Amino acid sequence: MKVIAYYLPQFHTIPENDEWWGKGFTEWVNVKKAKPLYRGHKQPNVPAPELGYYNLLDDNIRRKQSELAKEAGIDGFCYWHYWFGGGKELLEKPFRKTLADKQNDFGFCLGWANESWKAKQWTKDGRGDVVLIEQKYPGREDYINHFNAYIDAFKDSRYIRVEGRPVFLIYKPIQFDDLASFTSLWNGLAEKNGLGGFCFVGCYDEKKDIPVLKERGLNYIVGSRIGIGQYPMHIRLWYSIKNLILKRPSRVIDYKRTIKWAYTKEDKRLGLLPTVFPNWDHSPRSGMKCTALHNSTPELFGEQVKQVLKVSNGDAPLLFVKSWNEWGEGNFMEPDSVYGHGYIQEMRKALDEFGKKE
User: Fold this and answer.
1) What is the value of pTM for the model shown?
2) For domain 2-354, which CATH number applies: 3.20.20.80, 3.40.50.1110, 3.10.20.30, 3.40.50.2300?
3) CA-CA distance, 73 to 82, in Å (whole number)?
């Protein structure tokens, strides 16, 4: 079993974000502005000084992140990758610099975040359904150009593989109608280039989509997001009433409740890849419309990892961590000012106790 942590490259400036949100915008802008919305709400999250409010174009920062992730027992980062069609990319520089940095021997793979960017994704009132940049699928020529643009990465010895095949994750496969053609074409290109095909992993939102996704050429399916919807109806109703009484966002649930639902026997029966998550709190971006898990601690995270490993029994080839550095979603493993290396240490303890299978 290889452990892969999702990795957000939104911590450096790009001209597009300067235009949309003001000069100098990065994810840190929202993180720093966050406010506690209810009693006991842990906001704002402040990074520990060893990394600080970093810039991901700094090679030393990315190397330090790699060393910290190794401490946690993580095998590599899944870099979110933004290819909008026609060769248009955003936020690609951190991965490109990592690929060129041979001093950084940490594993990596790509996760295609194939989704249009909309203004409302970064506004606290959820308004502004304006498309900032549209996700397009121009067809065969663009699929070939996409493959060729990253062939050096796929051939790199650090690229994470399952049974010799490079892992490529697709965030919104259900929105990609031409997915079957894409996976078939890329597998053919991989064969011609000595890669033996791909290990395609797709995220799902609803379990009813799983059979459709498997028919489109995906090798494995994994959950895409943390949300109250994954919990039984009686828990959701109970928390809705409780949060109304406490005058806090309606989608707030105690983190300790998530442990038994993070990965179930039903998930294993369906062949889903497991995911663990240190926390989730979207309030830096969404304000009172946020979904938030409450009272996460390193110790509870360690319990969640143990529970997931117990259910999966190490049978899955991959375990995903959501996420390494999603500070704007309160969803990170990196050291902060409250718990320091706590989440890193607890994950390592859980993996060592289980005896992580390679």
Assistant:
1) 0.93
2) 3.20.20.80
3) 27
